């Protein structure tokens, strides 16, 4: 078993769990597989301990992850603002999963900061915000937040996890590693092996996640590759532009672009990839690298964001038709610095 946690941390968390009567579980805006896997696994784990909990997310999760919430118990803030705010005000413990800064929960940030409830952060991103939290579990050298939760649950209970907890943990780990392509360590394979022994049907979950997309999403992917991808061989980079017009044309839903940012990395000689998605008043930025080029540094410096060294995100507040030139300019600066560091 991985030893990520001190006895003091586990003891304090056990105390908070024991004392809590009403728990709220949060994750970040535009939740992905690791976020939804984390919150669902935590809710099911707490239920085994006899604890009442509610999941709240800022906006809707992708449709292909709906099988993890078959009873539609997840509260979406943008759809049920009053209910979500009342739940946060009345709870006695807040669990923040898979995000490192309260700004990652957008409009929920203020009400969470104002809450007098105990707060615990469990996350795997760099530079966690520690101030608002009573307890922080932070481990960046790990595949996913679901893997961190797996070892945390194992440490707390000292026993194997039941299937209802194992499944969402496997989904989060599988999606955040891009089906075992990125950020995979020996502990990740150990976790996967343990969960399969616990009864996880990996083929079924792979089909539900990677085979659960709509026809329009598949046609969008082909269109983006053909018409909206730019390759920059001199920079070993490629980027994709997803406009509002394209989204409307292909009936775009939240989550349809999952994995698109990785597509340029399949091209020989391309080690840096970006996806720019036009939204209301903002351009969402996703960055990836397949070598030791730090997209985290790039995101923090140029895109109002951050994340992991090889997987980061951010936002731009400029017209969409200026984004491509801005990316090339910022890439030029970062690549020159990166190459000088290699000398």
Radius of gyration of CA atoms, rounded to a whole number: 20 Å
Query: What is the percentage of strand-forming residues?
Result: 15-25%
Helix content: 40-55%
CATH architecture classification name of the largest domain: Alpha-Beta Complex
Number of domains: 2
Q: Overall pLDDT, averaged?
A: 94
The CATH superfamily of the largest domain is inorganic pyrophosphatase (n-terminal core)
Low-pLDDT stretches are: none
What is the spatial order of strands in the main beta sheet?
3-2-1-4-5-6
Largest sheet: 6 strands, parallel
- Oligomerization: single chain
Q: What is the β-strand count?
A: 12
Query: How many alpha or pi helices?
Result: 12
The outline comes out as globular
Question: Could you please describe the fold and organization of this structure?
Answer:
By secondary structure, the protein is an alpha/beta fold. It folds into two domains: 7-210, inorganic pyrophosphatase (n-terminal core); 215-342, Diaminopimelate Epimerase, Chain A, domain 1, CATH 3.10.310. The chain has twelve helices and twelve strands. The protein has helices spanning 7-19, 33-48, 81-90, 108-114, 145-157, 163-176, 186-197, 202-210, 215-228, 244-249, 295-302, 323-342; strands at 22-26, 52-57, 75-76, 93-97, 118-123, 135-138, 229-232, 237-242, 272-279, 282-289, 306-307, 311-316. The strands form two sheets. Strands 3-2-1-4-5-6 form a six-stranded parallel beta sheet, sandwiched between helices. A six-stranded mixed beta sheet has the order 7-8-9-10-12-11. Helix 10 (244-249) links the parallel strand 8 (237-242) and strand 9. Helix 2 runs antiparallel to helix 6 (163-176), helix 5 runs antiparallel to helix 6 (163-176) and helix 6 runs antiparallel to helix 7. The chain is globular and about 55 Å long. The mean pLDDT is 94.
């Amino acid at each position: 078993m991985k030893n990520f946690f001190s006895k003091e941390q586990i003891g304090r968390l056990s105390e908070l769990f024991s004392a809590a009567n009403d728990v709220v579980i949060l994750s970040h805006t535009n939740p992905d597989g690791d976020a939804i896997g984390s919150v669902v696994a935590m809710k099911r784990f707490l239920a085994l301990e006899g604890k009442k909990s509610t999941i709240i997310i800022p906006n809707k999760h992708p449709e292909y992850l709906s099988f993890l919430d078959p009873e539609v118990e997840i509260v979406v803030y943008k759809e049920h603002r009053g209910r979500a705010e009342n739940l946060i005000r009345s709870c006695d413990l807040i669990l923040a999963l898979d995000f490192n800064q309260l700004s990652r929960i957008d409009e929920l940030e203020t009400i969470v900061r104002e809450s007098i409830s105990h707060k615990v952060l469990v996350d795997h991103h760099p530079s966690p915000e520690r101030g608002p939290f009573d307890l922080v579990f932070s481990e960046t050298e790990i595949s996913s937040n679901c893997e961190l939760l797996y070892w945390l649950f194992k440490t707390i209970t000292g026993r194997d996890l039941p299937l209802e907890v194992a499944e969402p943990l496997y989904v989060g780990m599988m999606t955040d590693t891009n089906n075992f392509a990125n950020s995979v360590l020996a502990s990740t394979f150990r976790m996967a092996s343990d969960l399969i022994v616990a009864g996880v049907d990996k083929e079924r979950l792979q089909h539900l996640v990677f085979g659960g997309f709509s026809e329009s999403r598949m046609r969008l992917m082909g269109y983006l590759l053909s018409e909206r991808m730019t390759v920059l061989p001199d920079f070993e980079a490629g980027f994709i532009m997803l406009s509002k017009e394209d989204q409307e044309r292909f009936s775009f839903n939240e989550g349809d672009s999952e994995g698109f940012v990785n597509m340029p990395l399949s091209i020989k000689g391309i080690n840096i990839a970006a996806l720019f998605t036009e939204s209301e008043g903002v351009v969402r930025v996703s960055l990836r690298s397949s070598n030791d080029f730090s997209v985290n540094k790039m995101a923090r410096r140029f895109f109002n964001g951050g994340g992991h060294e090889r997987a980061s995100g951010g936002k731009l507040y400029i017209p969409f038709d200026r984004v491509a030139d801005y990316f090339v300019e910022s890439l030029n600066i970062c690549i020159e610095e990166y190459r000088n560091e290699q000398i």
